From TrEMBL:
This is CoA transferase. GO terms for molecular function: CoA-transferase activity. The keyword DNA repair does not apply. InterPro entries: CoA-transferase_III_domain, CoA-Trfase_fam_III, CoA-Trfase_III_dom3_sf, CoA-Trfase_III_dom_1_sf. It comes from Pseudomaricurvus hydrocarbonicus.
Amino acid sequence: MTERDAQAWEGPLTGIRVLDFTRVLAGPSASLALADLGAEVIKIEPPGNGDETRTFPPFRAGESHYFLSINRGKKSIVIDLKTEEGLVLAKELAGKCDVLIENYRPGVMDRLGLGYEVLSELNPGLIYCSISGFGMDGPLRDRPSFDIVLQALSGALSVNGEPDSLPTKMGIPLGDLIGGINGPIGILAALHERNRTGKGRIIDVSLLDGMLGMLGYLAQMAFFTGEDPNPQGSQHQNLVPYGAFTARDGSIIIACLTNSFWGRICQALEQPELSHDTRFDSLEKRRDRRDQVNAIVSAFTSQKSVQELVDIFTAHQVPNAPILGIQEALSQPQAVARNMVVETEHQTLGKIPIVNRPIKFPGSEQPVPSAPPVLGQNTDQVLRDVLGLTPERIQALRASRTVD
């Protein structure tokens, strides 16, 4: 245990140990959430290149931007699961862990001898979370999944993009990242249940299920109307004005979320009489006259700078925002005030900026997350501290190439 470990409060999951068999994005985003909350996450990687994302460019000093983005706060141990000794080590580690996460296709862990039935016999309290594209059953069970496939099959892709054009995938890979939301929710619920029963359980997280669950009011609209919602770009199906409007030097988002905002928008547009205009005095009327309303707003915004518009609409308490690029978003005053970008010490790269934990605990400050590990950085440490292996035994495992 390091001095940092002994003195720091890592988070509310301090003392929970997670065995992480995940790779690429959906699974690692789930184990990342648990690491952010203070769990000890032991990431098992195969010999050679490790997690596939370690090979995704661009690189800096051989380290992938992709891997760095979703593996902060974890430990890396290299085990060859194709060897008998490697499987024994994996089972021993599972016996020492509270949670196991994997995101192979259904059946792969069973074929390896690391399925829930086997490991729950060794560790009845183990919470075993399987994340896959389509879940453990159904006609698509064995099909490989990718973010854009999940966006398409969930209906989310059909409502993304500009009207009367081909649908556009979301820039954020929500089809995969939904695993990082629903996986931890299921795990935390199962940990709570285990406090009462002493027993673990298996959790089946389907990314397609998660995306379907995210449809929200769009699904209910389809139920009500019997018609599919159409893509609206940055606009809203029912709320007007809502979306991006051109400024003299860029664009700005304006959102009339409820009817009460319409009067404020009219004041901001220096046309207070519009708030009493019977053509536009309800949500339904503005929706049906979308082009007219948007033309009125655009005529005003196109004559002013983005900053002038932000000042005007903010003064009138109208929801608005400039459209920021990634670098500007990460350096904006709100992100700085919330400490959302921090520096951490990477074994190869030295000090690097990373995105900080998104969940805060006022009154109980957490330390800066440890940097994403280089491949096998913690192999010796885990074998020594978790399994209690001697240096001689670890050296023998290295010599046989079981670990690296």
